[in-house]
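If your schedule permits, I should be very grateful for your opinion on a structural question. What I wish to show you is a protein chain and, alongside it, a tokenised description of its three-dimensional fold. Would you kindly read the sequence against the tokens and tell me how you understand this chain to fold? Here, with my thanks, is the record as I have it:

===
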Amino acid sequence: MIKFNFGFKILFLLILVTSIDRLHANEKEQALTLEQLNAYLAAPNRQENDSQRDQSRKPAQIMHFSGIAKGDHILDIFAGGGWYSELFSMAVGDKGKVYVQNDSVIWRFAQKRIEKRTKNNRLKNLTRLDKIDLPDINIPEKSIDIAFTALNYHDLFFTYDISDGKKTIFREAEVDHKAALAKIKASLKDDGVFIIIDHHAHKGSGLEAPNSVHRIDSNIVKYQLEEAGFVLVEQAFYLANPEDDLSMSVFEDKLRGKTDRFIYKFKKRE
């Protein structure tokens, strides 16, 4: 009887310790402060010329709005050359992870930049998902703290471009946004967030704006996310510009970096 009691106590203690370890493992670190995030912008090892976009993109405020913390796992969607990916990499630290996704269309424009940025395993906590369509990404369910896309949600519907009177087809059809959003939702933790930043288009402009001016009606975004089981919980206005009349392409020299942009934070509907 004595041996049984002793063994039972040992077993109980082992279960208790294991439970506490699991609880601590699931605890999210405290979100980084704006001061801490601004310090990453001044890091001497940032890629050359990256800081030139800080003023127009306000990354410290954006990351603070996202609630980024040490140890977070982040999915950077349509990440392009990885400008934000590098800042995320610094912010989440060695225990964190950043997935950098580009499909074959974005890859055409971003390959050289992202390869340079990640050369020689420069960003060790970063995993590239090259030329993989968003609905096909392979990420463990409920593993992502922050899903993020900056200025590229409209690219789900970007299929062609017209330049100098010549039409170039980039996709035969739009990305299946329902499948893409379902994948993102499945990858997010229950308390995870989905941050979407994009260029405002005129209300009622439909899905032509992603091709003609590389913008999107924010009402479309909100409707599609709500339909996919997300809830808009917060928005920010760091990148608002009331002087942008929304009619020009975002790539016009006099407008580049100065568009009127929306910033949305979504969570999964409970």
